[in-house]
Give the backbone structure.
Amino acid sequence: MTVQPAIPGVSAPLPWQATDWSRLNQQLAEEQLPHALLLTGPQYTGKTRLALALARLLLCSAPAGGLNCGTCHACELSASGNHGDFRLLEPEGKSRIIKIDQIRQVVEFTGKTASFGLRKVVVIAPAENMNISAANALLKVLEEPAPNTYLILVSHRPHGLPATIRSRCQLLRPSVPSAGQSLDWLDRVCGSRLESERLLELAGERPLLAAQLHAESAGEQLLLARVALERVFAGESGVAALSAALAGADLGRTLGQLVDAIQGLLRSLDGPALASARARAGFQLLDEIMAIQRALNAGSNPNPQLLLDALLAKVQRKLGGGRLGDNIAVVTGGAHR
Ligand SMILES: [Zn+2]
């Protein structure tokens, strides 16, 4: 279960976003801030944080030091999620898609005058999770921007958005953290460098996922699953232990973990081993898992247990039992098939 962190009084950008933040502040001061922004970049590096910090700055009636003040009435309302001039659109409930009804409400919202007479802000994250009709409805808002209204789209897969939407937004790629920056930030979240390093590695170098793991105590499960996966790859065990370790885990995250693990294995191969039948099976499996991820993002709703059982059986059959590339005849140009 996702634990929603309490929104602090002041929403600051993350330390590695300082340059992006001062640029945004400058644009705001010069009244050059675009009405539609598209924030793109790797997942779990803080794009939505940046979007929320900007949204709250735009709504605050007494900004201080380039940040929202945290104490005015507008800030109190935006902290509690009750600000009438602010909408945060995310997939609702178990659904992975942002539906047209949600966008229709935004269209209506942008047509109204701001309650505080200042600005209205809409954040949509992840924007690529809008279905086609939702995206088409949003296009209207982008084509005829309402005065004093800001749309901030967040996306780690911007090519999943229609080009018509992308072209109407100013693109911003917030800076991503170095490993050192991630660790310094994580230290303050979890209080220990050792724990920061462990979680950051588990999270595949994605600091906000590491923080989430810390908050959810899900780190242990991920670690167990990773160890079980490595044992399958090494031929030390079957998928039963892996399946048990993954029981009850979020499907999207499990798929992400499988992708990370298979990519890690493939990266560790050198030239000849990369041409082995087993390595090719690894690439095929990657394609397959990524196709499933795309389908999930597009709203497909498979039985997670059945899907996972089928995938794990393939992992064992194609990649289990020895290191990739071991004892495998090198296939040269497919001539021996
Ligand atoms: Zn304020």
Remarks:
- Residues 235-324 form one domain.
- Strands lie at 36-40, 86-89, 120-124, 149-155, 170-172.
